[in-house]
From TrEMBL:
Its main location: cytoplasm. GO terms for molecular function: nucleic acid binding; protein-lysine N-methyltransferase activity. This is EFMT1 methyltransferase. It is found in: Cytoplasm. The keyword Cytoplasm applies. Keywords: Cytoplasm, Methyltransferase, Transferase. GO terms for cellular component: cytoplasm.
């Protein structure tokens, strides 16, 4: 009787399952509520090589995209969900945006979500017409030429011309080769520090220099 009471393994597992379901329900409330589009409403998944931008960086890139797209412009975010979320916080502004993303958690954003696997760069819905976006923002998930080259196929298919690429500084040569973009002075930051130096690249006169 003097021993500390302990739960059986079966009871403990049931309790853990209950807490997990409770957390998931709370998460769904976040999606459905006022903060649906706030940064961090969906947690990073490092196994998918996801690293969210800092709030300041996401805001800066979203502002640049809106200016580059122009009034009534169309913006595509490829593997750049934190920029998409910042753009959606500006609900009511005169532009439209969609997100191409491998992570199906972002399907909570409805029709603007398009499942995207860079391994199949042109496997896109029929309603995504070629050269139908005023600017494409892309952040390829891996620092490899193969990933950049395949993502570049998607970018070139979708954009009318303007490209905003975010990737490692080590990819500068490949970025110029596959997309004709040049490194900007602006240095993007992430909510968690990355080991690799990260940079932005554009192919038009931008406000990031």
């Amino acid at each position: 009787d003097d021993d500390i009471p302990q739960l059986s393994s079966h009871t403990l597992a049931a309790l853990q399952e209950f807490y997990l379901e409770q957390q998931q329900r709370e998460g769904m409330k976040t999606f459905q509520g006022f903060n649906q589009y706030s940064i961090g409403s969906i947690e990073e998944d490092w196994q998918l090589s996801q690293f969210w931008y800092s709030d300041e960086t996401a805001s800066c890139l979203a502002k640049e995209a809106v200016l580059a797209a122009g009034k009534g412009g169309r913006i595509a975010c490829i593997s750049a969900p934190s920029v998409y979320q910042k753009l959606k916080e500006q609900d009511g502004e005169d532009f439209s945006v969609c997100i191409l993303e491998y992570d199906r958690r972002f399907s909570v954003y409805g029709e603007e979500f398009i499942f995207y696997d860079y391994n199949h760069p042109l496997d896109l819905p029929e309603n995504l017409l070629p050269h139908s976006f005023d600017i494409v923002i892309a952040d390829p998930p891996y620092l490899s030429e193969e990933c950049l080259q395949k993502t570049a196929e998607t970018i070139k298919y979708l954009t009318k011309g303007k490209i905003l690429l975010c990737t490692g500084a080590v990819m500068e040569e490949q970025a110029a080769k596959h997309l004709g973009v040049k490194m900007c002075k602006f240095i993007p930051k992430h909510s968690r520090n990355l080991a690799n130096e990260f940079r932005c690249y554009v192919n038009y006169p931008s406000g990031l220099d």
